[in-house]
Amino acid sequence: MKPREPALFQAFAAILVIAVGLVFWLPGFGRTGGVFPVPLDDVYIHYGFARSAALGHPFAWLPENGYSSGGTSLTYPLVLAPAWALGLRGAWLSYFAAALACVCLWDLCRSMWALLDGAPRRAAWIAAPLLLAVPLVDWSFYSGMETALFAGILGRVLVAAHHATTASPTARSSAQLRAGLWGALLVATRPESAALVGPLGVAVVYGARSLGTFPSLLRALGPMGVFLGAQAAANLVFTGEISQAGAVRKLVGSNPYLTPIEAAVEVIKNLAVLRAQAFDVALGGPSFAFVAPLLALVAVLSRRTRLLAAPLVAGAIGMLLLVSLNTTARYQNFRYAVPSLLFLLVAAALGAGELMRRGRVVRGLGLGLAFVATLAPARLFPRQIDHFARASGNIEHQQAEVARRLAALSPRPRRVLVGDAGAIPYLSGLSALDGLGLGGYHDLPFARASVHGIPAIVELIERMPENERPDVLAIYPGWFPDLARSFGKEMFSVRIEDNVICAAPEKVVYAADWSSLAPKGETRAGAVDEIDVADLVDERAHRYTFPRPQAGWVIGATLRDEAGHPRFDAGRIVPQGQNESFVVASHVARGPATLVLRTDGGGPVTLRIEHTGGGTQTVEIPARDEGAWFEARVALSSVGGQDSVKITAQQNAWRSFHVWLVRP
User: Fold this and answer.
1) Any stretches that span the bilayer, and where are they (predicted)?
2) Per-residue confidence (pLDDT) for residue 522, from 0 to 100
3) Considering the entire predicted model, what is its pTM?
4) What is the DSSP string of 227-257?
């Protein structure tokens, strides 16, 4: 190797990385009017977490909202935070994110140079363009998301794992631990990468067979296990959920209304679309898409590269399976498939390098396949560059414009309710509540409520102190129709043309009116227990169950109460022949009581009431006024704490909204 070749390669990699970035960014500037192009609103969610970290509140979307498990990356905001603290605030933080992306991708190229040590040096020179050859992947690399940081850490993980399998026996233990720590950092950057870090840790242990298996596993996989355990514990303590808010909100399995067959169909549909669009099309079309996987297979079959390539291929498949469980996997330009594509491209680069170690014919074959894998996707660059620019224009002209107009309002809004929107609170400087729950609000389960239905979200807003409830809604009416209709008065809207990335062309801003919600702390005279149906906090406290799947749907209504005032309440539909149940609070002393059941207007319903303290009763509920709440009263001879009460809809569906247990 020529003495100056490493430096020349690093210069080449830097020029390549920056050039590809400019190819995406420059058209984006044209669409945004000079603002740094950001094609995904989620980028601003990372910026919000970074701002909170810089203010001394790490792992919070907004400091006043407390800990949030909704960030898709724990490490990325922490890396961005110093730049915000040093003055790169607002949209200017994007310049630092862009520089960081370039450094990380350059470092990935350097890692490939190290991994291909021993192969002809031309292999590394080819590997760098190969890693940046897929426009779909580049779109994500240069978007401002955590993908480029993830790529840089991936390179370090692989170099550390390779060193752990080749180090001398005396250095092997520390090398295993170093690989384990890098692996934990990768998982902290994208949790789904556990699909790679797990097999890679096993490979590290296998490659160091002279050491004890169990201690090696602890070093190679222990850091990831400690991180995941600590994260789950923090989630449970601060939010009441072990899972991250994104998993609760987006995973197919979180939807209580889907049958197993419906969930399986959704996953299969995701897999089919991702395979066709994120792999077949993105890798160059059906005629060429097989080349990168073929090179990856070469790396798996080769003894020299197997310990890295096999986990990379397994990780690519595993991550693809994991993201197929995500209900949004088919959207946002297939960004969730990018890590799998990246793993495949790295494995392909290893395979190309392995072929180039062989004789002239095989070397020529490897070189040819590498060129095909690099050039075949190139025809998609114009499409992806155009999409990047248009998407950046969409975010700037809708989300950022709403932020600017909200910031200019006088008096200044107290808190704005958004739906998984990052630019609006970040650029406006306003406090916010994420109606979909990814931003978090202390321990209220907004993410899970958003899966059950919009009225369940309103039930949680009812739990908030009145002076902390949002006084402005900045939402898509199609996402939150009941919210806009029942609690909003339109102030203004921002509409864009040529929408390619926003959930809808029009974002509407409403003044919020929560006057129909129950005042905080309101109690009913004589009530010894109360279950507010569709309030997930109340339901959890009373071990409430509803029929699922395809039943128990959350509904909401604003009707006249006994005093003639409009009052909102949420509830659930219990179909005929099915039941709901709850457990009486433990503090309730045993004795006679009246069960009060609130429902809305409608036709007659027959209920069967069963409770462990007093047998079974049948209740006939007559036809009711459609505009007012109706309450049915059932006398229970004996009821006490921990009794189970089951309500079955014997004839017609039961619309259950609220339950009180009352004593004189």
Assistant:
1) 7-26, 92-116, 123-142, 281-301, 308-328, 334-352, 364-381
2) 84
3) 0.94
4) HHHHHHHHHHHHHS-SS-HHHHHHBGGG-TT
